[in-house]
């Protein structure tokens, strides 16, 4: 770079030094220009032309975007996770001496953007702050568009902090400089966020109120960090920020990132779309605020049965009272986004149209409250208590604004007649002047006899009298003063006309100015109501979510669940609500789920595509739905409150993230077994599939035993390791179930029916047979299978090097009754301890008969009879 920098470039560099991590949009006339590295990078990201400023050695890379079209470009950069510093001219170039003064007036970042494409109306846009002190973490989240601030304290590992942070789907996290790099890396691995640094220095005076409620130093510091960042980036009024509220993360069901993804609560795994998720199914909200609250609720199901009952009870009433529900919905439909409108007011970019939305929304409030009042439900009555309906504000807006005001706030056309006497005076002057002009037109037509004479107006010449060329000769000489000649007409003025014109224009200018002032005052008046509007918004959005639950529950024949305290699950005719919705009506096969003290774990077998994972998810979704306060897809349901749900369900995106599927499987399993309590729900789908058969089988069994003995969590475990079904006799609380399939007209039909017992193991060959593979091939496969099954016990040796598994299996051995068949032959787990005694002819024939039994086509009773026969044979 040359030393010959122009003063302007020097100014640029000085400002840029304070905004190293942002694109500096430097205002030059009608453009925002970017220079140096910023220009090269922005030209690439925004696909705009890279040019240069200066010549030869002094050439500086440069690119620019027009001022009036900048928002699109800014949005593109923000969406990609960048920050943009807006640098404006802060003095009038006409009067400036030397280089015009410039300053950054706003830093726009992914977590602090107020509008644009990154903001979705039914989603919050959270900015997070994390602060660590002596191994404790403070986590605070703010949505700048709604003004909400939350804070919690976490005494756990960084993994737990990440899980908590993930519930906010943040795009940006503020940390102090001292925040460890290791933590930052761990966070980046799970969440795609932009990090920003700030220090928790003392707060500006007007923000002190916001942390006053907080007792502990850690929480205060975390919120201070967040607020400082907001203050320094936004550089303007943030009056809509609400005092930070503290919450305990332990008050909510814990759902880690994987489980939320696997259960497709918010978006689908493959497409990452709302369509097809639980949120999509439950979202019949009619306001944007309701949509956001619903998402928050699904992210954090409740644990307190009383609070869940409150919601369920309200859903019940709304289902019973159809007319009230319809009335409520109709009124809610006309309520605009009060939270974001408040944000706009505080931020200073609300216009008169926004206020009309506000007014229309407030008009609905009395009816909404009146309808809900009629429900006579204590919970909703409590919600409405002490909530200001903002009728004064509604009246103020009604009195002050026209029904369809102008968008611009500087050109008038917003304020109603009668609101301000001075404004009325100006308007009268304008009106009188205009009617005088209209009368003049009539008068002059009569006087001159020229019927086509007209009076017009344009910005350059003001009012004029226009006479077509052919009529000009008939004008009395000297009647008008010529002003402009057009090809087919002449334009004239008169001193009288000009006099009226200046009166009108002056009145217009003054009234425009006055309207602007009145509007700014109105904005200040509305600001006072921000806190009240936000409280009102909370209540309204709660009603919206609950009416949505009622509607979805009715449309889909959901049932009110009973929250039991005996830790048992009893679901009759349960369905997976989303799968049910996606397939043809009536095609879904409902299934019962029973988990009681004797069957806390279900081992689910069945062919691929039979419906195992659908069955497992069904339970998790029912629990989440109940704990957010919605009815559940079943004909009867009694469910305990689960403190956490863990899932390991094969996810398609593991590989995309560059992790080995098996490693992910094990990490998720570790997470489940190390965190679950006996009040948790664990879903493990095909654990151990990602490694070699015996390795996987050993792990699967060990995991089941560990959960069974050490944790006691309710567990659904699906597997294709048929051998594991023998565990039922060793693990008291384990029960085998399987998803049935059948043959119909030569085709395999998945019945999707879950029934007791385990599935037929040679199902693969059966399917091959149905697919009409050559007969000799099928026969050969049967022989090989037979051989494999018999030989496996002798041939396959999987060494166990670490003592753990070996020890536990030795324990199993010790506990096994004499004469009881080992689940796996000892060789499976390592050294051959003793050779199995050879089978007698009788035993072999019993085994053969057992193997040839067609379990798919017999009833349980027939099966019992056959087993009885086999037993008799052995006893003979
Ligand atoms: P698995 O886990 O056994 O491989 P899935 O649970 O993935 O099978 O189910 C496969 C497909 O079968 C699902 O996508 C769904 O379309 C259908 N299905 C599953 N359960 C049912 C059911 N109870 N009723 C109707 N269709 C079902």
Write a structural description.
The chain is of the alpha/beta class and 876 residues long. Helix content is 44%, strand content 17%. The chain has 27 helices and 27 strands. The strands form 5 sheets. Strands 13-23-24-25-21-26-27 form a 7-stranded mixed β-sheet, sandwiched between helices. A 6-stranded mixed β-sheet has the order 3-4-2-1-5-6, sandwiched between helices. Strands 11-10-7-8-9-12 form a 6-stranded mixed β-sheet. Strand 3 (51-53) and strand 4 (60-66) form a beta hairpin. It is elongated. Mean pLDDT is 86; it is low at 651-658 and 793-836. Bound molecules: adenosine-5'-diphosphate (ADP). Adenosine-5'-diphosphate is lined by residues 579, 583, 587-589, 591, 606, 608-614, 752.
Summarize the structure.
With 876 residues, the chain is an alpha/beta fold. It folds into seven domains: 7-108, DNA repair protein MutS, domain I (MutS, DNA mismatch repair protein, domain I, 3-Layer(aba) Sandwich), CATH 3.40.1170; 126-251, MutS, connector domain (Nucleotidyltransferase, domain 5), CATH 3.30.420.110; 283-390 and 530-555, MutS, DNA mismatch repair protein, Chain A, domain 3 (Orthogonal Bundle), CATH 1.10.1420; 421-523, MutS, DNA mismatch repair protein, Chain A, domain 3 (Orthogonal Bundle), CATH 1.10.1420; 562-762, 3-Layer(aba) Sandwich (Rossmann fold); 773-835, no CATH class; 841-875. It has a seven-stranded mixed β-sheet, with helices on both faces. A six-stranded mixed β-sheet has the order 3-4-2-1-5-6, with helices on both faces.
Topology, please?
Blueprint: H1 7-16, E1 22-28, E2 31-35, H2 36-46, E3 51-53, E4 60-66, H3 70-79, E5 83-89, E6 102-108, E7 126-133, E8 136-143, E9 148-154, H4 158-166, E10 172-175, H5 181-190, E11 194-197, H6 217-234, E12 245-246, E13 254-255, H7 257-262, H8 278-282, H9 288-299, H10 305-320, H11 322-333, H12 338-347, H13 352-374, H14 378-384, H15 391-400, H16 421-448, E14 454-458, E15 462-468, E16 481-485, E17 489-493, H17 495-527, H18 530-555, E18 562-564, E19 569-574, H19 577-582, E20 591-595, E21 601-605, H20 612-628, E22 636-640, E23 644-648, H21 661-675, E24 681-685, H22 693-711, E25 714-718, E26 734-744, E27 747-756, H23 763-770, H24 775-795, H25 803-815, H26 841-852, H27 860-875
Parallel strand pairs: 1-5, 7-10, 9-12, 10-11, 13-23, 18-22, 21-25, 21-26, 23-24, 24-25
Antiparallel strand pairs: 1-2, 2-4, 3-4, 5-6, 7-8, 8-9, 14-15, 15-17, 16-17, 19-20, 19-22, 26-27
Helix pairs in contact: 4-5, 9-18, 10-18, 11-13, 11-18, 12-18, 13-15, 16-17, 26-27
């Amino acid at each position: 770079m040359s030393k010959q920098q122009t003063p302007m470039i020097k100014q640029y560099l000085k400002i840029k030094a304070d905004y190293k991590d942002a694109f500096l949009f430097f205002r030059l006339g009608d453009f925002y220009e970017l220079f140096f590295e910023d220009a090269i990078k922005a030209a690439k990201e925004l696909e705009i032309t890279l040019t240069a400023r200066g010549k030869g050695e002094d050439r500086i890379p440069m690119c620019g975007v027009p001022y009036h079209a900048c928002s699109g470009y800014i949005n593109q950069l923000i969406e990609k996770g960048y920050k943009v510093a807006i640098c404006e001219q802060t003095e009038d170039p006409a009067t400036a001496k030397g280089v015009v003064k410039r300053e950054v007036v706003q830093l726009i970042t992914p977590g602090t953007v107020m509008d644009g494409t990154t903001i979705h109306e039914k989603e919050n846009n959270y900015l997070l702050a994390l602060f660590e002190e002596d191994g404790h973490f403070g986590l605070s989240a703010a949505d700048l568009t709604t003004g909400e601030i939350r804070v919690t304290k976490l005494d756990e590992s960084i993994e737990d902090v990440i899980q908590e942070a993930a519930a906010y789907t943040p795009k940006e996290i503020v940390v102090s400089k001292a925040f460890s790099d290791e933590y930052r890396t761990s966070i980046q691995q799970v969440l795609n966020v932009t990090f920003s640094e700030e220090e928790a220095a003392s707060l500006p005076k007007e923000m002190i109120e916001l942390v006053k409620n907080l007792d502990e130093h850690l929480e205060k510091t975390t919120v201070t960090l967040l607020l400082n960042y907001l203050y320094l980036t936004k550089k303007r009024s943030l009056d809509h920020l609400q005092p930070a509220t503290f919450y305990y993360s332990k008050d909510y069901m814990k759902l880690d990132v994987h489980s939320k993804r696997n259960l497709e609560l918010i978006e689908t795994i493959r497409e990452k779309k709302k369509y097809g998720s639980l949120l999509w199914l439950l979202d019949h909200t009619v306001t944007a605020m309701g949509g956001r609250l619903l998402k928050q609720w699904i992210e954090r199901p409740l644990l307190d049965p009383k609070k869940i009952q409150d919601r369920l009870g309200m859903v019940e009433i709304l289902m019973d009272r159809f007319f009230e529900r319809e009335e409520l919905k109709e009124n809610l439909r006309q309520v605009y986004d009060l939270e974001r409108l408040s944000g706009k007011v505080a931020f200073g970019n609300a216009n008169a149209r926004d206020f009309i939305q506000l007014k229309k929304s407030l008009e609905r409030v009395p009816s909404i409250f009146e309808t809900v009042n009629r429900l006579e439900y204590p919970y909703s009555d409590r919600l409405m208590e002490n909530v200001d309906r903002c009728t004064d504000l509604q009246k103020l807006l009604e009195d002050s604004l026209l029904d369809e005001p102008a968008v611009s706030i500087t050109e008038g056309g917003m304020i109603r007649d009668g609101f301000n006497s001075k404004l009325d005076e100006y308007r009268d002057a304008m009106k009188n002047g205009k009617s005088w002009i209209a009368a003049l037109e009539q008068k002059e037509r009569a006087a001159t006899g020229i019927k086509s004479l007209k009076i017009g107006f344009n910005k350059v010449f003001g009012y004029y009298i226009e006479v077509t060329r052919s009529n000009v000769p008939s004008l009395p000489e000297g009647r008008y003063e010529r002003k402009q000649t057009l090809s087919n007409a002449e334009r004239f003025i008169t001193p009288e006309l000009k006099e009226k014109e200046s009166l009108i224009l002056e009145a217009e200018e003054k009234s425009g100015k006055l309207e602007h002032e009145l509007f700014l005052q109105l904005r200040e008046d509305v600001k006072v109501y921000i806190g009240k509007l936000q409280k009102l918004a909370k209540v309204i959005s709660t009603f919206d979510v609950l009416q949505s639950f009622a509607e979805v529950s009715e449309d889909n024949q959901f049932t009110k669940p009973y929250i039991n305290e005996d830790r048992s699950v009893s679901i009759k005719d349960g369905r997976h609500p989303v799968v049910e919705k996606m397939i043809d009506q009536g095609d879904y096969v409902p299934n019962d789920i029973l988990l009681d003290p004797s069957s806390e774990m279900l081992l689910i077998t069945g062919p691929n595509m039979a419906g195992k994972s659908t069955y497992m998810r069904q339970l998790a979704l029912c629990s989440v739905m109940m704990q957010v306060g919605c009815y559940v897809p079943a004909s009867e349901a009694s469910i305990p409150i689960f403190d956490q749900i863990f899932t390991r369900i094969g996810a398609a995106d593991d590989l995309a993230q560059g992790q080995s599927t098996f490693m992910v499987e094990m990490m998720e399993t570790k997470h489940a077994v190390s965190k679950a309590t006996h009040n948790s729900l664990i879903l493990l789908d095909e654990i151990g599939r990602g490694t070699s058969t015996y390795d996987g089988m050993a792990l699967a069994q060990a995991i089941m035993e560990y959960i069974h003995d050490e944790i006691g969590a309710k567990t659904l475990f699906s597997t294709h390791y048929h051998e594991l079904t023998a565990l039922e006799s060793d693990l008291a609380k384990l029960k085998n179930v399987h998803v049935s399939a059948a043959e119909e007209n030569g085709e395999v039909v998945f019945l999707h029916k879950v029934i007791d017992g385990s599935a037929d193991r040679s199902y693969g060959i059966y399917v091959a047979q149905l697919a009409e593979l050559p007969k000799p091939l099928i026969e050969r496969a049967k022989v090989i299978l037979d051989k494999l099954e018999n030989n496996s016990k002798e041939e396959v040796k999987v060494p166990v090097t670490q003592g753990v598994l070996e020890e536990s299996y030795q324990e199993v051995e010790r506990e096994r009754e004499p004469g009881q068949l080992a689940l796996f032959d000892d060789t499976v787990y390592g050294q051959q301890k003793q050779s199995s005694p050879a089978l007698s002819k009788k035993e072999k024939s019993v085994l053969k008969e057992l193997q040839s039994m067609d379990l798919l086509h017999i009833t349980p009773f027939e099966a019992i009879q056959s087993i009885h026969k086999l037993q008799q044979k052995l006893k003979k």
